[in-house]
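During the second year of the project, the team shifted from modelling isolated chains to modelling whole assemblies. The rationale, set out in the original proposal, was that interfaces cannot be judged from single-chain predictions alone. As a representative example for this report, we include one of the complexes processed in the last quarter. Its constituent sequences, exactly as entered into the pipeline, are reproduced here:
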Amino acid sequence: MGRVGVFVCTGCGIGASLRTDGFESLAKESGAARLALHPALCAPEGQELLRQAAASGAVDALVIAGCSARHKRLELSFDPEKMPVERVVLREQVTWSHPAGEEDTQMLAEDLLRMGVARAATMKPAERAQETIEPTVLVVGGGLAGLNAALAASGLGHPVVLVEKATRLGGYLTVLKQVVPDVPPYDRLHANPIPELVREIEKDTNIRVLLATRVKEIAGQPGQFAVELEGNGDPITLKVGAIVQATGARPYDASRLSHLGYGQKGVLTTAELDRRLADGSLTVSGSGAIKRVAFIQCAGSRDAQHLPYCSTDCCAASLRQVLQLREAIPGVECSVVFRDLRTPGQLERFYQAVQDRSGVLLVRGEVESVAAGGDGLRVGVSDSLLGEAVEIEADLVVLATGMVPVSADGEAIRQLRDAKKRIEKNESETQRKAAEALAASLAAHEGTEILNLSYRQGPDLPVLAYGFPDSHYICFPYETRRTGVYTAGCVRAPMGWGQAAEDGWGAAMKAVQAIVAARQGEAVHPRSGDVGFASFFLQRCTQCKRCTEECPVGAIDEDPKGTPQYNKLRCRRCGICLGACPERIISYPDYSVDGIASMIKAIEVPEEDEEKPRILALLCENDALPALDDAAMKRTRWNPWVRVIPVRCLGSVNIIWISEALSRGIDGVVLVGCKRGADYQCHFIQGSELANKRMENLQETLTRLSLESERVRVVELGRDEWDRIPAVLDDFAKTLDDLGLNPLKGF
Amino acid sequence: MATRVDPKLMLDLEKFGAHDARKCYQCGTCTAVCPHADELWSFPRKPIQTARLGFADRLDQSLEPWLCYYCGDCSERCPRGAEPGEMMMSLRRWLTSRYDITGLSRLFYRSGAAEVLAMVLVGLAAAGGFLAYGLLSGHRLGTYDGPHAFLPWHVIHRFDWSMAGVLTFFLAINSSRMWWWTTGSGPRVKVPLSAYFKKLPLIPLQFFTQSRYAACGRKRSYLVHLGLMLSYVTLFVLIMFFLHRMQSGPAIDWRVHGLGYLAGLGLLVTVIVSLRGRATQAAPLDRRSHESDWIFLVMLLLTALTGFTQHVLHRVGLDVAANVAYVVHLGFVVPLLVLEVPFGKWSHMVYRPLALYLAEVQREALAVRGVPARQPAELPSGIRTPIPSPAAAEPVTAPPAGLP
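Output from the structure prediction step:
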């Protein structure tokens, strides 16, 4: 039990809204070693007061009661290795959101102080990791994004190893003579940027290029990845600090597009036309001269039967091909059939420039049929601008197919590996046969792993919707669910070359950040700068594997017996393992089962006859808590019976906290987390899902305590939904009011 | 049956002046701002798309281009600079050439040089012919009026009427083609005879007042256009019916001469205003001028100037000079009439009132036949999400009373 110094700031109206004369005795009763009031702790004088207290050796932890921890971060921060700090939020959660001078307001402030002292007493100084960190960045994939990533990382002073499976650099773009414009006036094609980039790469002595090479295995953790590469010669092993995966996309499988005529003579895909334009085989093919070309946009895209999404680049690619064809074949008539011509950003100008030329016809509508007819092909279109059926004759039909990220096979690869394991185990005849059938059906995926991570959770990056390996595309582009591995280019999201180049730079900078953070023993996003690591009290571990399974970033592997093996540099400190562990053996220096539980214990629960219910609100620090701050800043009022405890992620909520609260007579617990589902906003991917699952498991406990299941509620709240907070809290209070007070009060 | 797309039509239309319509991205702003577009006759967006897809037959059947007076509001508002007003103008030129069975119209619109050449040839032939007549008939060049005039009025008169007969013949044939394609063959609705009768007054009304042009909201353009047309018609009537009085002398018949001076002055002023407008490109209507526009106005100007000159010379007693000027005048006026009226820009004097009439005839026919002005749009199967109309969202008819 540490000695706690409590410092209450009375600025920003806090002093005027509360009676502070009782704080001295309150602090003493809570076990604090010292209490001081100050009119502005963030001012130099106040900072000096805090610094002296920290340096005095008389306290082991500080409670700073004032504004939200999201404010005055620099002024009120201390070295976490020496002085843990707990911020009690009087300004936002009391002064700005509750009427001054009222009894309920005073009780709220006093509870928050007690809770802060209780938690601070459990906090321990963190131990910063001191590891040897390799500065090299591994770039997998030598396309446009990969080349840019390599140049960017090298430019930031990091050695780079660039691995490309093909025998030359450049990726898809290699076949193109020209590309769509990315500089003003955006109305003509540009020279392909790849040769220039390759020259720069070759000149850069900091970049080691390995062609015809694949990744055989990646083990370890950020700053210390052990990589094994295989190519033509001897296997290469090296250490790298972070990885950029820029492995691109492949065109959608056109053999599934027979309804658009694929398979018929004269029907090509965008990629096929690019190849034929490159090797000059277009003009000599087929029955005669090509005079009319029809492009079909969204071929297998934005279509529930095929790719449901827009690949954003196919429209620009077709317009590029229109210009290339008109140069290659003078007088060729080009029609482009589109649903919506999507040329994002300045490419709008390129589209307009192409539209302005004669001999180019843009037809808005749906393709109904592609069939042989006349002396070529006939494309039946329902024109949506005149509202009728039209027919376009063409000698060549080009299907603008979308992009499929190469990571999309990840799930199939994982299943194949599972099936093989089951075959090896040979548990029963039927199981083995089922596994063998599955393995046979997935045989095409054998050996298609990209990164070959030797992680418990699979060899490649986990993917989200449509097979893209993103982790949180709203807030953190380039991030994946594997710390230290970043994606760039079309594997991350469908994009054109201009964006892919930028992507390479973005991912490289993330990779460099990860290396620097590892060197400083700090977490990467979203808890950047956090130096605490999880510690496992393994003597009590029951090898239930929940922590290893639920860790969203694959930080925890396990030994053959199932004992967790923590790779601390992979850890992003979300605390989901802490919430998962039924034995409660996982804790962080400043965030532990005991710490939160002692806060709950510090809440004073009034007797039944006082008719003052108490509500515990566990708020996600990433979205719900900032939203609450916003609500307070706008002087929104909410229920004064609510006691807020921030949690790192809703997934880090251990159900012991809920049963502790309810058995202490607290009337209800509301958990407010990020949005979940397909468009989730959880920084740790599944926090809200896990919380819901755990609360379902809690129902048994509630029944045992003869409590109604409505006393626990999980709510999803977006970062911008500050205005919903009063309704969320008041509505829950109303439900509890209808249920009546918790019968366990006073036990 | 799906209609075949023909991208070549746009290349053809470019020759008629549609240089920017390719830029159109079909937002429909033009149709929204046009005071004349309605549900039945919707333009310019739709005709532009019809043209881009190359549906020439569909354009033959359309009256829309004639319902536009080119106020230029659409071109001003067009976010893409696709000049929808110019497209409508180009379609009028193109349609004129489609109606024309001789093919001359097409030749002249596609080639300004060919038109000028034809003008020069016809002009020289006319001037030469009249000069030869005067010299061969033994009349003296110094005699301007009277039965022994160098060019006696009854000769000119006979020539005028025979020329008018030929021109009427061509215009009648071309107009009947317009009627048949747009209305007679019933592309939209079968028109009962009664509708033709009922709307007949529209033709003189629109011809003489151009009241629809007034609705465009460009008063100046409207007045210039009306003034030019009325001046011309007045002169035409005077020449066709009162030539003997105009050419008689020496006394001035103010009933005829007064009107003639007024109309001649009106023509001169409106032509000069129009030319100046096109030269300075002040109004949107004047921004894009086709070769045919220039040729037409310049010919009108020269005709008016030479007409005045010969008259003034005669009045001041310089009859030799007056007769020479008269021959020159005829060298301008004959090609202007022979080429512009049936095959050129001037044909719209007939086509536009006729189109306005036929458009209303069709509207009447649709009303008689009980066809709603616009068929409820049947969406092609490929369009997956029709925009719900408020009417579709809520059932319009309440259940009959008395039912549970």
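Chain A touches chain B at residues 333, 335, 352, 355-361, 363-368, 380-393 (CB under 8 Å). Residues 497-519 of chain A form the longest helix (23 residues).
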